[in-house]
Design goal:
The chain is built from four helices and two strands; from the N terminus they run H-H-H-E-E-H. It has a two-stranded antiparallel ribbon with strand order 1-2. Helix 1 crosses helix 2, helix 1 packs across helix 4 and helix 2 packs across helix 3. It starts with 29 loop residues before the first helix and ends with a helix. It is mainly α and 120 residues long.
Length: 120
């Protein structure tokens, strides 16, 4: 490790059904979480998609797939008035972000422990 630079772990959390991830499309990851957060901020799936540089049709498919997987709506769709994140949707994004923070914290603590051991 170079002096003066701290080594950190970057963690990418994805939620999948069952063990392993071979052949399984993730149900929730950073992109879905961010799309939900932007819908909550903008009040529109279309605006959220544009902010992410994504076609509306792709954003719609992503949300529909996540809703099908979890078995509850993530969005309240109000036609021309836009969309809002449901209470369950807000809970899911919050839970995902909490798991993401916990994974990052635990990984970085373990890394620091291993680096201290290596210096002994």
């Amino acid at each position: 490790m170079m002096k003066g630079e701290e080594l950190v772990v970057r963690v990418k959390v994805t939620l999948h059904q069952g063990e392993g991830d071979e052949g399984h499309t993730p149900a929730m990851g950073r992109g879905v979480a961010r799309l939900c957060e932007l819908v909550d901020e903008t009040g529109s799936l279309n605006k959220a998609a544009k902010e992410m540089g994504m076609a509306y049709s792709k954003a719609w498919r992503i949300m529909k797939r996540a809703e099908d997987f979890f078995g509850f709506p993530l969005l309240d769709r109000n036609g021309p008035k836009g969309s809002n994140l449901t209470e369950k949707g807000k809970w899911l994004v919050g839970a995902y972000r909490e798991v993401e923070r916990a994974a990052r914290k635990a990984s970085n603590e373990k890394l620091q422990e291993l680096l201290r051991e290596a210096q002994q």
